[in-house]
Every structure is written in structure tokens, then in C-alpha cells.
């Protein structure tokens, strides 16, 4: 996901990481970036699958300072009744594979009253969840374009 037009900060989380605690850590890191002068519009958080769950929690925790959020195959359990209180904030891009169980984020969008914008892209590679295991043009190009568009 790196690119010459933006700075990438990537975290590796350990197996068994508590998603709620990790999301709080990420939200605090974002707040520190903003406090140091980075415009919230120039910050994008992104996650895939379980990482997308953590990313959605991070967006939820950043209600007071919404940033750009990208979820890749992220609307499986986050749209379940168990997590009905989690809402997205700021600008939100969802990308999902049409053959995957983690599909549209329209339910999450509908309950997220503080969204500035919502875009959703479906890709059809036939690889189900595996479509996001490797950086393929079908999702990488539109995600990078979206990130660059938000920070310009």
C-alpha cells in the first residue's frame, strides 16, 4: 500500500490481540498525529478482515476527530446484531469481494449518522476472502486513488 504521495504507518498485531484494546491504541495514535499538526483529512486508517473490525472500532472511537476509513472485506461481523452500536465516522470506503461472506457495508453506513461520505466498491475475482491476501490491482488501485483524493 505504500506510495510516494503519502506516508504509510503499518502496525503488525500479535496473534490473539484484543481488538478493542488495539483499536483504542490506534485511536490514541491518530489523536497524537492530529495533536502534532497532521490534518485529520490527511489520515486514513485501513484494515482487512479482523483488521477491518479493529479499524471500524478505531473509527468509532474517533467520533470527535473523524478520519478517512477503508474496510477491506470488513462487513461480516461488524454488521451483526452483536455490534449494532458501532458506528463509522468521517469518510468511509468499503471494498468487498462478491463471492465472499463479508459483503456490503450498507447496514453499517445506515447506522453511522456522522459519516461525511460513503463509497463502496465490489470486486469479482472469484477468490472470496482470498482476494485481499495479496495486493492485486482490482482493489489496490481504487483504494490508493481514494486515499490520494481524500488527502489532496
Automatic annotation (TrEMBL):
GO terms for molecular function: hydrolase activity. Residues 22-80 form the Phospholipase/carboxylesterase/thioesterase domain. This is Phospholipase/Carboxylesterase.
